[in-house]
Specification:
GO terms for molecular function: voltage-gated sodium channel activity. It is a multi-pass membrane protein. The chain is built from 8 helices and no strands. With 222 residues, the chain is an all-alpha fold. The two termini are 47 Å apart.
Length: 222
C-alpha cells in the first residue's frame, strides 16, 4: 500500500496506475482462459457448488444437534487441557467453535480429557455453578467418548469426505468433456471468425475469401 501510494503521488498518475492494474488482471484472465487444466478445475468447482451447498447445510444441521447435546451435558465441565474460556460447551457459539475444530480432526483429545474426569480429586462433584441448579464440574466418560467418536465419524469421515467425492466426480466429468475433439470454445471461435468474413449474417462467404477464412481459424479447426 505504501509503495502504491508513493508511485501514484510521485511517478504515475492514479488513472494510469489503475489502467495498469486492470491490464494485469486481464493478463491473469487470459492465462486462465488459455490454461486448459485450470479451466477444467474451475468448471468442476462450479458444477459442484449446488451439491457442496447442500452438504454444508447437512454439516451445519449435524453441528447444531451436537452443540445442543454438548451444552446439555458438558457445559460445566472443569476448564483444563483443551477446554478454556473460548473452547467450551457453555454457550451455543462456543459449542459450534469446538465442533468446527473437531470437524478438521484436530483438538478433539484436548476437549475430551476434562470430560473423562468423573471423580475427585480430578473434579469437584459438589461445586456450585452460579446461575444454574447443576452442581459439580465433573464429566461423563462414557457419554463423552460416544459423543466425540460419533461426531468424528459423522462429520469428518463421512460428510467431509462427501465434499471430496463430489469434487472428484465432477472433475472427472469435466475432464471427459474437455477431452472431446471439439468444445464450446472452439465453436465460439469459429462463429467469431465467420462473423468477420460475413458481417451481414448471410450464412455465405465469397469463394475468394475461403482460404483467408481457413487460415484465420485456430487449432483444432485450422
Amino acid at each position: 500500500l505504501v509503495l502504491s501510494d508513493i508511485i501514484e503521488k510521485y511517478f504515475v498518475s492514479p488513472t494510469l496506475f489503475r489502467v495498469i492494474r486492470l491490464a494485469r488482471i486481464g493478463r491473469v484472465l487470459r492465462l486462465i482462459r488459455g490454461a486448459k487444466g485450470i479451466r477444467t478445475l474451475l468448471f468442476a468447482l462450479m458444477m459442484s457448488l449446488p451439491a457442496l451447498f447442500n452438504i454444508g447445510l447437512l454439516l451445519f444441521l449435524v453441528m447444531f444437534i451436537y452443540s445442543i447435546f454438548g451444552m446439555s451435558n458438558f457445559a460445566y465441565v472443569k476448564k483444563e487441557s483443551g477446554i478454556d474460556d473460548i473452547f467450551n460447551f457453555e454457550t451455543f457459539g462456543n459449542s459450534i467453535i469446538c465442533l468446527f475444530e473437531i470437524t478438521t480432526s484436530a483438538g478433539w483429545d484436548g476437549l475430551l480429557n476434562p470430560i473423562l474426569n468423573s471423580v475427585p480429586p480430578d473434579c469437584d462433584p459438589h461445586l456450585e455453578n452460579p446461575g444454574s441448579h447443576v452442581k459439580g464440574d465433573c464429566g461423563n466418560p462414557s457419554m463423552g467418548i460416544c459423543f466425540f467418536c460419533s461426531y468424528i465419524i459423522v462429520s469428518f469421515l463421512i460428510v467431509v469426505n462427501m465434499y471430496i467425492a463430489i469434487i472428484l466426480e465432477n472433475f472427472n466429468v469435466a475432464t471427459e468433456e474437455s477431452s472431446e475433439p471439439l468444445c464450446e470454445d472452439d465453436f465460439e471461435m469459429f462463429y467469431e471468425t465467420w462473423e468477420k468474413f460475413d458481417p451481414d449474417a448471410t450464412q455465405f462467404i465469397a469463394y475468394s475469401t475461403l482460404s483467408d477464412f481457413v487460415d484465420t481459424l485456430q487449432e483444432p479447426l485450422k
